[in-house]
């Protein structure tokens, strides 16, 4: 187990490592100490790569003596696994009464023969301080690619407001009492959020690294079919596997997120404030795609000046390069017809897109989501086939064309 420190989102880059251990009936581990900063890209050389992840925000519901079973969809396979739990927005210590991982069957059901206990420093339970996070021991668990896993967490004590990812595009199942080993969660209620679970790494000595999709609701998958893994980062993972590449894809989009301003109640801290936590500290990261955050700045009540947006974008590009990461910049998709569209916002989108496409941006490549999705006859709007219906978010077809617009040669 490693403690990953208090979640100061502007902190240094951390290499997440973990040891092995067996389930123990001894008292819970109490997380303490810190991990020295070091480049996360080195994790790929050691065989670890992130196969799934989610960015965390505030505002989650409280739990008490409940089991939360969360469904995650993997991008790459491995013969060992480790989980990362975040209590970044907690205000009191968080008691984790047990964690299990299994192959999912259907609904809240698991394939019982695959059910495996997860340990932390050799113990079945762990207490995470407010603002902290923890990475589990290595679990001897064969993780398949392109598959659903069920991660069950038992919360024996009152948690208070929880650290969460609001839009899971999957159902999370919540049951009363300790149901860690239950084949299905009895009396389950459902939620659309992930709670505490922020990362799943796998061990594959042949892995090439991790690409992080970093953005807002379009990256997060709003508008795509729930439970179908149709977000554009999921579809990019499909293309990478079909091309024979072992590259993990992590989606750290947050719906409502902004480039320049922090949000509350699930909108997340600004892209600038969370870039270290949600990009640089991901295991094995070698590439980042910076996507749609500026649309929410442009649609806000008091939008920042274009120069401020471009300056913030430049800072992210520079920070990525300083960490040895290739930065792929995205143009902004059309949003004419959306509730917060304005002519001023359209001018801002045009200016941001001109910067991204320009020779002086510093971007290593450009993912032209604008050209991929807009209507050639009305370039400020989506092509109807790509529109989810709200004129802001692409539907499944729009997600597909974004994924197809990624040139896989950028990842050589």
TrEMBL record:
**Record's SUPFAM superfamilies?**
SGNH hydrolase
Parts forming coiled coils? none
Superkingdom of origin organism: Bacteria
Q: Which ranges carry the SGNH hydrolase-type esterase domain?
A: 213-401
Alphabetical list of InterPro entries matching this protein: GDSL_Rv0518-like (IPR053140), SGNH_hydro (IPR013830), SGNH_hydro_sf (IPR036514)
Its name, as the record gives it, is GDSL-type esterase/lipase family protein
């Amino acid at each position: 187990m490693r403690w990953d420190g208090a979640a100061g989102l502007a902190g240094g880059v951390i290499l997440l490592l973990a040891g092995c251990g067996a389930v123990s009936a001894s008292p819970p581990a109490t997380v303490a100490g810190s991990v020295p900063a070091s480049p996360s890209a080195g994790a790929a050389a050691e065989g670890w790569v992130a196969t799934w992840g989610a960015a965390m925000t505030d505002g989650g519901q409280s739990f008490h003596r409940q089991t939360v079973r969360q469904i995650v969809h993997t991008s790459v396979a491995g013969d060992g696994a480790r989980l990362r739990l975040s209590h970044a927005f907690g205000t009191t210590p968080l008691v984790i009464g047990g964690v299990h991982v299994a192959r999912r069957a259907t609904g809240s059901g698991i394939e019982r023969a695959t059910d495996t206990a997860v340990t932390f420093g050799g113990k079945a339970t762990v207490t995470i301080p407010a603002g902290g996070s923890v990475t589990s021991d290595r679990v001897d668990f064969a993780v398949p690619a392109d598959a659903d896993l069920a991660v069950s967490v038992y919360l024996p004590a009152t948690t208070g407001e929880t650290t969460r990812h609001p839009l899971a595009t999957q159902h999370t199942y919540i049951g009363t009492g300790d149901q860690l080993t239950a084949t299905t969660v009895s009396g389950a209620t459902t939620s659309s959020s992930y709670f505490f679970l922020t990362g799943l790494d796998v061990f594959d000595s042949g892995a090439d690294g991790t690409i992080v999709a970093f953005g807002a609701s379009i990256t997060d998958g709003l508008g795509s079919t729930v439970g179908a893994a149709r977000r554009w980062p999921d579809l990019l993972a499909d293309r990478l596997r079909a091309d024979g590449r072992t590259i993990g894809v992590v989606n750290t989009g947050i719906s409502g997120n902004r480039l320049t301003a922090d949000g509350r109640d699930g909108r997340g801290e600004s892209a600038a404030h969370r870039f270290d936590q949600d990009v640089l500290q991901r295991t094995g990261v070698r590439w980042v795609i910076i996507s749609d955050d500026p649309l929410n700045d442009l649609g806000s009540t008091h939008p920042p000046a274009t120069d401020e947006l471009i300056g913030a974008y430049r800072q992210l590009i520079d920070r990525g390069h300083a960490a040895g990461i290739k930065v792929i910049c995205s143009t902004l998709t059309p949003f004419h017809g959306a509730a917060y569209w304005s002519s001023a916002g359209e001018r801002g989108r045009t200016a941001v897109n001109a910067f991204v496409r320009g020779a002086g941006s510093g971007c290593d490549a450009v993912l032209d989501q604008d050209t991929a999705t807009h209507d050639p006859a009305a370039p400020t709007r989506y092509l109807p086939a790509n529109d989810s219906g709200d004129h802001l978010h692409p539907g499944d077809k729009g997600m597909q064309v974004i994924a197809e617009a990624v040139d896989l040669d950028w990842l050589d």
